[in-house]
Amino acid sequence: SHKDVEGSLFVVKRRKCTAAVSAYYDESAEYSADNLAENLLGDFEFEIQVPDLLYRNDSQEVYGIWFYNFASL
């Protein structure tokens, strides 16, 4: 599924008020008002197929993140 999100990729680890730790990535949109955030914990699965990083989220949807310079992974 294509999300029309293009821009910087941030992987962050944050602590919630309940002291549970979560990790997610946020791809900030440069060309639209929409951002995409995914939880990297739980059932997160990924596979690298140069130059893409493919992943399946908690909802079992498959997405790909394309990297301009694969050496930056």
TrEMBL record:
Gene3D superfamilies tied to this protein: Pleckstrin-homology domain (PH domain)/Phosphotyrosine-binding domain (PTB)
Entry superkingdom: Eukaryota
Organism listed in the record: Linum tenue
Protein's cellular compartments: Cytoplasm
GO molecular function terms noted in the UniProt entry: enzyme activator activity; mRNA binding
Family as reported in the entry's similarity comment: Belongs to the DCP1 family.
PANTHER family per UniProt: DECAPPING PROTEIN 1, ISOFORM A (PTHR16290:SF0), TRANSCRIPTION FACTOR SMIF DECAPPING ENZYME DCP1 (PTHR16290)
Name the record gives this protein: Uncharacterized protein
Major subcellular location class: cytoplasm
CC terms in the record's Gene Ontology section: P-body
Protein keywords: Cytoplasm, mRNA processing
GO biological process terms, semicolon-separated: deadenylation-dependent decapping of nuclear-transcribed mRNA; deadenylation-independent decapping of nuclear-transcribed mRNA; mRNA processing
